Amino acid sequence: MDVSDECKQKFLEHIAKSNCRFIIFKIENQEAVVEKLGIPDEAYVDFTASQPASERRITIFNFDFTTDQNFQKSNFFFSVHGRDKVVYASSEDRFKSQLDGIQVELQATDSSEMSLDIVKGRTL
């Protein structure tokens, strides 16, 4: 699988400018492409609602949180969500290797495995 230049560019913009809350990628014709960009003020619930329940997607989410020491921080979550594992399983590592700056990885078969409590637990 190839990762399109558009995917790489949107990810770099996401890290450098925080111009979107999340990016949802899908695979079309053996290439990862951008399916949706979440606007900066969208919440985690908007992110999870934007993903199809029955189709696998690769996503990046910018999760803002406050540490125990009361510092504001952000982590970039890489997640693979959905049931269609065949195409995506062989592509995930290659995809991640081309996106420098991912801090946390989360695998999920359905939305219950991507709950906000699980994300917070992986961050704190």
How would you describe this protein?
The protein is 31% helix and 34% strand. The protein is built from 5 helices and 6 strands, in the order E-H-E-E-H-E-E-H-H-E-H. The model has no long low-confidence stretch (mean pLDDT 78).
Write a concise keyword list for the protein shown above.
124 residues, Severin, single chain, 31% helix, alpha/beta, globular, 5 helices, 6 strands, 6-stranded mixed sheet
Protein topology:
Layout: E1 2-3, H1 5-17, E2 22-28, E3 31-38, H2 44-49, E4 57-66, E5 72-81, H3 85-89, H4 92-97, E6 104-108, H5 116-123
Q: What structural category characterises the helix and strand content?
A: alpha/beta
Number of domains in the coordinates? Answer: 1
Query: Which superfamily, in CATH terms, is the homologous superfamily?
Result: Severin
Distance from N terminus to C terminus (CA atoms, Å) equals 33 Å
Cα-atom radius of gyration = 14 Å
The helix count comes to 5
Largest sheet: 6 strands, mixed
Binned strand content? 25-35%
